[in-house]
Design brief:
alpha+beta
Length: 77
């Protein structure tokens, strides 16, 4: 499978009023999908990508998104 990359990232309000990070992934065939990351996963993604702004997430591997989601999930363990 070809690597997907982060095409765009933006902030959105969650139903509870806490900010979420919406990440748009782009696949090699041109397809896209959006993933919503909670506050913990969003912060983890920024750290994993060494990004200081949302713009710096563009072009990063989808694997960072997967790892950020795992970090968020594992906080409940």
């Amino acid at each position: 499978m070809s690597q997907a990359i982060i095409k765009q990232a933006r902030l959105a309000a969650a139903h509870d009023g806490v900010a979420e990070l919406i990440v748009c992934l782009e696949y090699a065939n041109g397809g896209t999908s959006e993933i919503s990351l909670d506050q913990t996963a969003g912060a983890a993604l920024m750290e994993l990508c060494a990004a200081k702004s949302l713009a710096e997430l563009t072009g990063q591997s989808w694997e960072h998104v997967r790892e950020a989601l795992q970090i968020s999930y594992n906080r409940f363990q």
